[in-house]
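SAMPLE LOG
Freezer: B-3
Tube label: C17
Construct: single chain, 358 aa
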Amino acid sequence: MRDTRESRLLLVLLIAIAFALITVDIRGGEDSPVDGARQAAAAAFGPIENGVASAVNPVGNAVEAVRDSGERHDRLAALEKENAALKAKLGSDDRNRSRLGQLDKMLKVAGAGQYGIKGAEVIAIGAAQGFSWTITIDVGANDGIRRDMTVLNGEGLVGRVTTVGPNTSTVLLANDPDFTVGTRMEGSDELGFASGQGDRPLRVELLNGKAEVKKGDRLVTFGSQADKPFVPGVPVGVVSRVDPSGGGLTRTLYVTPFVGFTKLDIVGVVVEAPKKDPRDTVLPAKPKPVPTPTVTVTVTPGATAPGDGQQQNGQQQNGQQQNGQQPQPQLSEQPATDVQTGPPSDGGQTQDGQQELQ
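STRUCTURE (predicted):
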């Protein structure tokens, strides 16, 4: 296309229309006038996303590699292809085992909470209509999915359904800044509201500013009226930090979510809410603390250890020697044994009454 004045005006007009549609969509919120166009886009591009997901299946690539290797005459090339096919097959088996594990955990969560769920696979990350934290799943209106349904997996709360097409749906993840869910503390039943912060922990505002909360406490969803968009009892996360209470009406917590939002694969849409609030029963059992072994050392004095008085005298003498002083002789008085009043045998003179100490 030639760079002319008309082409520039057309470009400016298209940009203005795009910004106008974005503004109308944001201001419209849940009742956006362009919601119909979004659903039509989901209906149009959903099958394409399914097709792309199927095309990159490693099992299909492995089968194709084996088929191609059979047609080659070069033995070395055939061995390389067969090796690649075996590696791809092993990778596919690992992925299938991982998916089975995810599905098993999700079914246990659904059974504990008595949730009726519809299993789904994540086929795309991020929505085409914005920069929010969203995923696209391979179930839609034809599978009984409706807007404002809770989405979970084997770890806990994933998000809620926002847009539904015939065969695909868009899910707003719980860590999105526009996401808010009512929460209940395990044990104390303190209520609050959790908001997403992207790749940072969830921010929770407790309604009770004086609530006793500590690191390691866990939260579940409180539930919504008519169970839309959230059913009760779904695990949310673990408290990682508590802001000091400043005497305000609320108290701020930071919660690490149970779900890893960057590695989602198998999820479940809650199509039937539980008849009774499961409260804390869906939370996994807390790990038992491992006791730390302690070693006690007892010192027993030896049989030849000197007495206290001798130890003290030895310490005093050692201290004097270290200070450069000679130890002083210890004098002790003894009773006199001989008293001489006459002249000594050696011819010397002594005074009367002088005592000689023997």
